[in-house]
Amino acid sequence: MSNQPFWTSRRALLAGAGGLTAAASLGACSNGRVIGFDKANRSLDICNQGEPLSLDPHKASGSWENNIIGNMFVGLTTENAKAEPIPGMAERWEVSEDGRTWTFFLRQAQWSDGEPCDAHDFEFAIKRILDPNNLAEYAAILYPIKNAQAVNAGEMSPDNVGVRALDDLTFEIQLEHPAPYLPELLMHYTAYPVPKHIVERHGDSWVHPDNIAVNGAFTLVKWWSNYIVHLQRNPNFFDAANVAMENLYFYPSNDVNAAARKVMSGEAGWSTRFPSNQVNELRRALPGYVRVAPYLTCNYFSFNMTKPPFNDQRVRQALCMAYDRDWVAANIYRTGEQAAYKFVPPGIANYPGTARYRWADQPIEQRREEARRLLTAAGYGPNNPLRFEFSHRNTSDNPRVAVIVQSNWRQIAPWVSVELRGTETQVHYANLRAKNFDVGDGGWIADYNDAKIYLYLLETRTGPQNYPGYSNPEYDRLVHASDFEMDAARRGEIMSAAEQLALDEAPICMSVFINSTNLVHPDLTGYEDNINDYHRARWFGIRT
After folding, report:
1. Which of 109, 148, 203, 303 would bridge with 310, disulfide CB 3.0–4.6 Å?
2. What is the DSSP letter of 515?
3. Do the beta carbons of residue 440 and residue 302 sit within 8 Å?
4. CA distance 4 to 513
5. Any idea where the domains of the chain sit in the sequence?
6. What does the pLDDT average to over 271-288?
7. Distance between CA 499 and CA 474 in Å, rounded?
8. Is 183 in contact with 77 (CB distance < 8 Å)?
9. Is the pLDDT of residue 9 over 60?
10. What is the second-level CATH architecture of the domain 7-50+217-294+517-542?
11. Can you give the pLDDT at residue 423?
12. Which residue in 413, 442, 476, 140 sits closest to 303, CA to CA?
């Protein structure tokens, strides 16, 4: 057996398995070392956080999956390099006066197998994701579509969803209520088309590399679980002539320190996260690589309200108060993160941002004392200790944050006991959705720039992605009412009232608003910092 490191021989393995030519696949020097950004072969190696659970747009739920799927598919709208909505498969669209009927006029385009990609594929896809038999956990994002919620709940047939192909190139969406953010929402992978002819033939195995067809800039060549996802330029993509990159190699990289080392060694040209506490060292070691930018995302901890002790608001409120998020923002993260005293992050359009924990201005010592009082009132003390488990992702800065969380909560009183449980990201989120946790960390990235994308997470109807199992009829009423308010300022006020209600009842403990942190080869052009942290390789080029 060769003594060459497995990492450095991976392209040779792919070439042997996939039948690629050595010149196209190796991307290596004569000594076999992988070049993470190979200009000659137009290939890019990417450290990409977690292992995808699925590459089916209707089964995915993580940003690390989006990073791959968003290069394979294009929705009615898509994003430019700055993550702004632009025409995708739809060249243009029209909106009715009441804002509830949208008509999209599609371009002539093909799937990667040469079959037409048309309005019928979009109708099929949206009905598929909303069909409750498909168990799509992200389906709730499409609830603005007429009858979508009822269909997803099994109360109506998928044929009743408010979407239809008027002809091959004309697609209509009817909404429950006006949704001016729809062009941004339709950028999301839940609204991507899927190839009807292949899904009907292969079922859920349609995403296997031997079966799949895509309509985006890159198609799937190989997926070795827990090792690599290889994408190759799709010559049938409608804008293929302007796609510079030939091959993309995505590696699950839970360890951000290891990911940074791979960039430093030249084995990766891009890492989608880096250890923020090492930002200064990385700036010295990798001039021009460090990219830090504002990001519409927040980190928070969910309390499992479906069981004791977190069905008691006093317990939840006490832990929220005793957590020193300012210290975490300043000392664990070193890239300008902000302590979060509200749910909806700064930068959301048409939103007042006035909701806030009512105790936010109190010193941590005073908050800790009040937390002890609340827990005592809830019946906890030396003779009845409060014991629970804090589950966290084993990625990025999350393990370091978990240690501080544990320490903060133990400082409330000697009879508060917190055990830590670290888990791989995809398993951790599956546990959150299944309510298999006590307190669990998590993050949420805005799928479109509107407060609704955060507030819907705590609606009763949201289901698995409502991690704490929060259910308040008044909260639901307010969020629902905001959907029908045409005045943007008034709509923002209604949503802010809902947010304040949730903050008061504390189903979640806010942590920090984080920034995006990427390491990007400075000769990779077309990478633009943006608040969504979307970076599609369609726009990448090579600086010579």
Report:
1. 303
2. P
3. yes
4. 43
5. 7-50+217-294+517-542, 70-203, 297-514
6. 95
7. 11
8. yes
9. no
10. 3-Layer(aba) Sandwich (3.40)
11. 94
12. 442
